[in-house]
Amino acid sequence: MGKVSLPVVGTVEITIDGRAVRVREGATLREACAAAGIEIPTLCWAETLTPVNVCRVCVVELAGARTLVPSCSRKVEAGMAVQTDSERVRVSRRMVLELLASSVDTSTAPSLRAFVERYGADPDRFGPRATPAAEGVRDAAHAGHHAEPDGATAATVGQPVKVDNDLYVRDYAKCILCYKCVEACGTDAQGTFAISVAGRGFDARISTEHAVPIPESACVYCGNCIAVCPTGALMAKTEHDMRAEGTWREPEQKQTDTVCPYCGVGCVLRLHTQDDQILKVTSPVESSVTSGNLCIKGRFGFGHVAGKDRR
Amino acid sequence: MPLSFEGTRAIGATLGSGVVMVLREGTELLPYLRRMAAFFRDESCGQCVPCRVGTVRVEELLARAALRGPTADDRALLSDLSQVMRDASICGLGQTATSALDSAVKRRLALVDGGAS
Ligand code: SF4
Ligand code: SF4
Ligand code: SF4
Ligand code: FES
């Protein structure tokens, strides 16, 4: 029999940090790097959401390109040569992290803090932080207008936390504007479109229509935005209140997977418990049923389990 | 010099929107540069981090330099800000927002030690 040579269908070869790597056609540079064992930092990217490539922490250096390219969304092309840890890449990643960490409250954003550490970012080099805005001021910002800087402080997105419903809070002083909540609420999961980006430039912010409180908005309280928020800006009210009281002890908490009892979809629920009380419900992002999404009943409807009149 | 992409590139400038500003020799540049920084901050759409926050930090840096005189730290910070904005912004606005400032600093016309700016 003659020798049969099959063409390799549907893959392309690229070079990553000097190593030849063969990956599936249509893969992103981030996926190619992951296949080569190189972990790329990401903030606005998530497996379950369409890439928006806005945070720019995932940039890599592509030979022949004028600028760095976002690896989370740039697709591989045969012959590409990329550097994932060049001086240029390191400077841009460090600066993106300095810019973010100097303008938001990172206290509940462990992944962002880990990247700040890894890239040696110094968020304090822009000077002391400006006084946070009073309630409603950022929501009323007028595009194309801003107060002249005082030359002494660094502007932040600081503002009071929005507590306007019983189920979750919105602490936009922690928001890095990654668009994940907008995508989860809209096209990529929930299809409710209760929130979007309003305003422009440094005043850009996540908002309901006309900045109305959540109960007056289109929100259906699925909490799918909370599930994807990487900074804790969106947080269940129970967790927010317990953190404020100092009773939220995450290292002690247990996680137990079960199935939602409410309807036939059968979503996988992950119960987060402390002292045998359910404090929070999530769903594993790997679940083929939910991809991490739930509805209001699965996510928030657990109060009856601890009800005093339960028999 | 022909007012074209090629012509401006040949003298190390950018065409921008084709505006030519004529300033008398010895004119204090910092106020002009601050006005440009404020303009780019206002025009940033706010999608990507380098431009959304970078334009704010550039304007703050110039306000600081105007207040207490420029330092080597200011120049180092500007160099980092320019680099991330040029290399990692999504669009041309962020990528070129510091061009005029960078060129003024390179020619020692702004952020010079001991200078008012
Ligand atoms: S809880 Fe659900 S509906 Fe409400 S804003 Fe979040 S994702 Fe949208
Ligand atoms: S609230 Fe959270 S998910 Fe939404 S844009 Fe801000 S950081 Fe991202
Ligand atoms: S979370 Fe909602 S959709 Fe999923 S099984 Fe429970 S009730 Fe049904
Ligand atoms: S993860 Fe690629 S731009 Fe945010």
Task: Outline the structure in words.
The complex is a heterodimer of chains A (311) and B (117). Chain A is built from seven helices and twelve strands. Chain A has 311 residues and is an alpha+beta fold. Chain A has three domains: 10-127, Ubiquitin-like (UB roll) (Roll); 131-248, Alpha-Beta Plaits (2-Layer Sandwich), CATH 3.30.70.20; 249-311, ADC-like domains (N-terminal domain of TfIIb), CATH 2.20.25.90. Chain A is globular. The model of chain A has no long low-confidence stretch (mean pLDDT 96). Chain B has one domain (26-115): de novo design (two linked rop proteins) (Up-down Bundle), CATH 1.20.1440. Chain B has six helices and no strands. Chain B has helices spanning 5-10, 30-43, 49-68, 72-88, 92-96, 99-106. Chain B is globular, with a radius of gyration of 14 Å. The relative contact order of chain B is 0.16. The mean pLDDT of chain B is 92. Classes of the chains: A alpha+beta (311), B mainly alpha (117). The A-B interface holds A 53-57, 59, 67-68, 88, 91-92, 95-96, 99-100, 102-103, 125-127, 143-146, 148-155, 176-177, 197, 199-204 and B 38, 41-50, 52-57, 59-60, 63-64, 66-68, 73, 77, 80-81, 83-84, 86-90, 95. The structure holds iron/sulfur cluster (3 copies) and FE2/S2 (inorganic) cluster. Residues 260, 262-263, 265-267, 294-295, 297-298 of chain A line the site of one iron/sulfur cluster (SF4).
Task: Estimate the helix proportion of chain B, in percent.
Answer: 55-70%
What is the tally of helical segments of chain A? 7
Oligomeric state as shown: heterodimer
CATH topology of chain B, anyone? de novo design (two linked rop proteins)
List unreliable stretches of 5+ residues of chain B. none
Q: How do the helices and strands follow one another from N- to C-terminus of chain A?
A: EEHEEEHHEHEEHEHEEEH
* Anisotropy-based shape of chain B: globular
How many structural domains of chain A? 3
> What is the strand content of chain B?
under 5%
What series of H and E elements makes up the topology of chain B? HHHHHH
Number of helices of chain B: 6
Distance between the termini of chain B: 30 Å
